[in-house]
Amino acid sequence: MSPTPQERRAARHGLIGSAPPARRGRTAPITVEAIISTAFGIVEREGYEALTMRRLATALETGPSSLYAHVVNKEDLDELLIGRLCAAIELPEPHPDRWREQIAGVCAQLRDQYLRYPGISQAALAAAPANLDTLRVSEGMLAILLAGGVPPQTAAWAIDALVLYVNAHTLEVSYAKRRRNHSDDGWVVGREEMTGRFAALPDSFPQTKRYADELTAGSTEDRFTFTIELMLNGLL
Amino acid sequence: MSPTPQERRAARHGLIGSAPPARRGRTAPITVEAIISTAFGIVEREGYEALTMRRLATALETGPSSLYAHVVNKEDLDELLIGRLCAAIELPEPHPDRWREQIAGVCAQLRDQYLRYPGISQAALAAAPANLDTLRVSEGMLAILLAGGVPPQTAAWAIDALVLYVNAHTLEVSYAKRRRNHSDDGWVVGREEMTGRFAALPDSFPQTKRYADELTAGSTEDRFTFTIELMLNGLL
DNA sequence: TCTACTCCCGAACAGTGTTCGTATCAAGTA
DNA sequence: TACTTGATACGAACACTGTTCGGGAGTAGA
Predict the structure, then answer these.
(1) pTM here?
(2) Residue A19 pLDDT more than 60?
(3) CATH class of A5-72
(4) Judging by beta carbons within 10 Å of its beta carbon (0-12, 13-18, 19+), is residue B141 exposed, middle or buried?
(5) Regarding the domain delimited by A90-233, which CATH topology (the fold level of the hierarchy) does it fall under?
């Protein structure tokens, strides 16, 4: 008996490994691998919101129901995607003196991956956090922090905070970019117009008016590194 | 001519205030106020994912299309909800010596509001960040940080980081709770089973196995205050 | 050749947000 | 009083979404 998608999912969560199934009489057989790669292609080109089962099926030249032979759910597909995404993260060998830049580097890798596939952080936030691939990067980050002399309890909680922030930050950036592309409304505005709008606020916003420059300063990358460094500062 | 929903939205984003429309021949006239309050009721009882236009319409004893006379979009409705939610935040008078607890208190208020309406942080993350109500709490937090002696640029960026983390944290907690309620699968497990599962990992996860206790330690509230304090530590 | 067993997929179901055209009703005006 | 005006409300429909079911197609083994 061939594995049901549920069994595949269980195998992914556990440690069982099975041989891949043989191909059939299609031009390109539908495999979990093919599903994942075309899904990534769709997300990279059109964003995560465009990744629907139908869109994915037509990209594979088939119907939506064919996907459910290899994938339990859309939720399951999302889990596969973020697992694959985490598997691409390179974890450096922990070096006690360079723990800060090493952690920052891993976070930057995560950010780049998430931004390469816009909106996929939504799936990352919703996904079960016990996936084996996500656990791998947690393990790597934990090793770096411990090598740097961070206390275990602090390190454990800090990792959660860091990846949570990376997820949220990339999600917000993707939303902002989407809003900018869908610029049907005049709501999304540029930097200088934002400053002017802050300056034109009623007097019940004194600080916001006064520090409009600071509030709108910095690229998204600046804000990202600022926050990461901010969290890293308190670890020792 | 009565205001279209678009005009209402523009009025909310700007500073124009208009008189409420007169009521009609319904038992309870359908107003933006009624829409918001019943929407909050639905989210509080059944979660944000249950808040659909149809569900909201039937709760108001009408059809889905009737809502679009008062609300532009579902996105617009979401914006209204998080605006209302932010309006309920009490901002303390800044006290230079107590800026840390004051900021932590505001964050805790935000967290409690978000957790009271599970899943609504999703709307908060997607919403345009320039809403007047959200700007009010930003103004309040900025005032507290400045009074505490935090440099303006640091304060401005820290506020973004803080509210972003609060959003992400509450969203994750809501997801976990939903997963626990929908416990059709046996995937969601308790604390001790989580620890055991970590301990049973393959040897490629040495640190995770070794520090399984630390990784699963602490309530969600502990982790929340830890991260907030972590970020606050680096501000001076 | 016949059977068993995969894999695959068309059709349909129950949802979702949203729009269009129309009906209903209060107020203002001749 | 009769009539227009204008806003409010809503039924029906459209284009989507994820998902399930029953059967079709084709290979592998007996």
Answers:
(1) 0.90
(2) no
(3) mainly alpha
(4) buried
(5) Tetracycline Repressor; domain 2 (1.10.357)
